[in-house]
Each structure stands twice: as C-alpha cells, then as structure tokens.
Amino acid sequence: MKIKRKKTRIIKIGNKKIGGNFPILVQSMTNTPTSNFEKTIKQIKSLEKAGCEIVRVGVPDLKSAKNISKIKKQIKIPLVADIHFSAELAIESIEQGADKIRINPGNFPKNQLKEIVGRAKKRKIPIRIGINSGSLEKDLLIKHNQVTPEMMVKSALRNIKLMEDLNFYELVISLKAPDALRTISAYKMLSLKTNYPLHLGITEAGTEVSGTIKSAVGIGHLLLGGIGDTIRVSLSADPVKEIRVGWEILKSLEIREKGAKIVSCPTCARSEINVIELSQKIEQITEEMETPIKIAIMGCIVNGLGEAKEADLAIVGIKKAALIFKKGKVLKKIPPKKALGELRKELALKKIKKKSGNRKINN
C-alpha cells in the first residue's frame, strides 16, 4: 500500500524544506533552560545523534533569545524559537538567527505583529502558527463549554488571515490537543481549508508509554490519510525518546526508512531462544544506525521461517539450537547462547554507515 500524500506549499527552514514532495521531518524540543547555553547544546547534540532533523527551543527571556546565535554555531540542524506574547523576544530571536519562530499571531497588537513579520521577511524565515486546545482566544472560549475541533480550526484560520493580511505566506500550522480524537478531527478539517504545510503532534501527550500510544494513534492516523509534513512526539520524558518514537511511526507506515526495523515475536511455550533479551539487546546495538535494515528475532519455526525470509537478517529458534538467516537463506546453525554474538558479527559485516540518503520516501 502506498500512501497518497497531500502536496502542500513548500517552506524552507534553515537547510531543510518541508511540504511538496520533501520528506516528512522528525523534530523535537529541548527541555533545558535555553539561557543555559552548555546544557542546551549538549541536549541538541544528543537529539541530532538520535535523528532529530529540526529542533525547537523555548525563549522565555532575553538571555535565552540572545543565546540563539551561539547555539546555531554549534549545531547542524535548523533551530526554531518558541515565543509567547513577547514581541521583543520574537524580534530578538529573529535577529539572532533563528531559522523559524513559533508564535500565535493573535497574541500580539497589530503594530507589534507587523514588526515581527517585517523582520521575518527580511531574514527570509518562516513562522509556525501553533494552535493548542489549552490556549485558544478568550472570545472563542466564552461561547463554548469545551474546546472543539471546530473552535481550533476557527482559531487557526483567524491567525492565518492575520498573517496573510500582512502579505506573509511562509507559514507552517499546527493544531494540537492532548487527545487523539480532537487532534485528528481538527487537522482533517484544516487540511481541507488550507494548503500550508502541517506540523503534526498530540500536545501534552503524557508519559513515555501513554504519550507514545496517543501520539502513534493520532499522528499515524493522519499520516495514513496523507496529512502532515513534519512531526513532533511530545513526551514527559527525555526528548531523545521523542525522536525514536517519531521515527518508529514513520517506519511502521513505510513512509521513511532509517536504521533497524526489528520484528520479534511475543514469545510463548514454543520459544527455543530468549527472544525478549535478544530483541532488547539488538535494539540497543542498532539504535544509532542510519542505514535501513530489517531484523527478525523469532522464538520458533511456526512463524519464524516466514518472517526470516522477508528480513535482511534473522534468527529463528529450533530444537536446542538457532538458525541465522541472511537475505532469507540459512547462513548457519548455532547454539542459542551464541545468538547475540553471531548477530553482532553479521551487523558488523554489513559495514553500517550513517547515511541519510538511504532512507525511503513514499509520497
């Protein structure tokens, strides 16, 4: 099955582009104080290593805004400044070299918004309009007891118009709620009404487990429908985990390929090898790989042989032994205790290189 993706307006963010036929990019946001240059750089480096392609930093004060130029010199990916209410911080972030800013235009008086837009035009950077269910305009909230997808879309269109009235069209839009249903509905509605690229995510999704599930359901559903140009998984956890989940979502839908795709059985009484331990260790070994590879770890021959034939590398448990498969063919028979070592050896033989060019993109 090939996903038919909606072609949206192409927007340049630093050295990346989103929209059109460009890849759906994975991004995250730092949770360090941006005023602390060292901690923020260290976290961004970890995010880059994990596969982050755009990074956002919070800008709550002037020191944080002034650090943007320092941070940019130390990183390789586009840097986005997240600003609320302060035109001074938005302007300073632009002048310090942010590759994009995230604001809600309706939060600013017209003269201040005009100044922000003028600076963004001069620097040729885009702006993301970030609509969250928890921070809609007061007049919309007064009319309703709860936030609906329709209200979120109305807010987005209102903010888009403010920007278009200033002849600014380099926009990215997000419409996030803390639950999948409202988020899905809002994005679907807005996708029919605008051609701007959409940044997908479930806001305040929760802890690592619950947040991962909500994000996979919401983001995955929208991507399957061809909606979305960049994604951010929001977790109350290490931001590096957001990147890993984001990539797993894209890989599961075969939208993009990066690193190892592990197929492993849930185990049962027939298992002849320790699938759980093996799969966890292989996941750790391969977590920084870039080149796509499918690895199957199966406890017995019931489903094992079929999965092994479809994998680049596989191990299948048999009576008191294990079979190593390569490209669907049996390579060798080994004692189960040697399984991890043999898999390590085969992975080394592949000479894995960190190359993004091997990723597959379906449009």
Question: Could you walk me through the main structural features you see in this protein, from its secondary elements to its overall organization?
Answer:
The protein is of the alpha/beta class. It folds into 2 domains: 11-252, Alpha-Beta Barrel (TIM Barrel); 260-358, Sulfite Reductase Hemoprotein, domain 1. 41% of the residues lie in helices and 19% in strands. It has helices at 37-50, 62-66, 68-74, 87-95, 110-123, 138-143, 149-164, 180-193, 208-224, 239-252, 275-286, 301-310, 339-349, and strands spanning 11-13, 16-18, 25-29, 54-58, 79-82, 100-103, 127-132, 171-176, 199-200, 230-232, 260-264, 293-298, 313-318, 321-326, 329-334. Helix 12 (301-310) links the parallel strand 12 and strand 13. It is elongated and about 75 Å long. The protein starts with 10 loop residues before the first strand and ends in a 14-residue tail after the last helix.
